[in-house]
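Chapter summary example.
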Amino acid sequence: MVNRIRELPQNSKIVATHTDSPDVLIWDVEVQPNRHAVLGAADSRPDLILTGHQENAEFALAMCPTEPFVLSGGKDKLVVLWSIHDHISTLAKEQGPTKSPGSTSTSTKHASKGGGGNDNHVEGPSVEARGIYQGHEDTVEDVQFCPSSAQEFCSVGDDSCLILWDARAGSTPAIKVEKAHNADIHCVDWNRHDINLILTGSADNTIHMFDRRNLSSGSPVHKLVGHSAAVLCVQWSPDKSSVFGSSAEDGILNIWDHEKIGKRQDTAGLKAPNAPPGLFFQHAGHRDKVVDFHWNTSDPWTIVSVSDDCESTNGGGTLQIWRMIDLIYRPVDEVLAELDKFKPHILGCEKN
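The structure predicted for these 352 residues follows.
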């Protein structure tokens, strides 16, 4: 079973997957024999197998925005870092002057298609980790690269810890927030517009926003309460530095703007008049827990979200692509000026 998939920012045809296995699988979707629905196509085989975990690595997976690096976390409490280019370097060394281009001796690994006792295996060239980082005391649930540095990254886990790592400084935590939440932490995201801001979401139903310049205090800049169940995913907007989304087991996807905290609350997109500070829109179109979502980087304010509807529909899930009306997120003065243009028409309709 595929639990998570991420694409390489430098090449969208290269993706990484997490399954119920210790390995991370790398695929070039363009060369897979069954990339199209054709009867009789050969079985898929990963182009690369990333090794280094000792137990299953199911969910924590990230691709670096600046380098072809892959980051993973797992049940073994480890954070593991790879470079896809290490495979190319290995091939170059093995194809030295004494070997022909077709006589490489790249190591081949058997990767389990599933977890547990599944005996179905696939083969592929393998790459060992560049670094293995120890600091968590329980399962690592999510990882994220710093948007401006391939050597800096963060992780969260079931030990309620948020850890920042610097690969240049060794395999121990650079900064560790011991009690970042009051329960398991499921997700983390790093602001690409302001690299000092980091979001975390937890089983305690809250989202915390941390400033990495003040992580030693252990206190978040903001604690946001707007879900009635565990938060499963958080992600900053690519279009506005202060806006982010959060999804949870309550089936709701919330849109927040931390710049609105402490200001007069605009609840144009909400039915509830007393919305939590910073919350300005709720998407309630899913029937069950929203397990993942992503902002569209090419189409501002467009979001794709996925829910696991197994409990409510006895199987399957739902994928939705949606966008809130622009009157909700545009500046208030601008919206009022536009609506004012329609005032004569509305008054005319009332008279008739």
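To summarize the output: Residues 140 and 157 are 4 Å apart (CA to CA).
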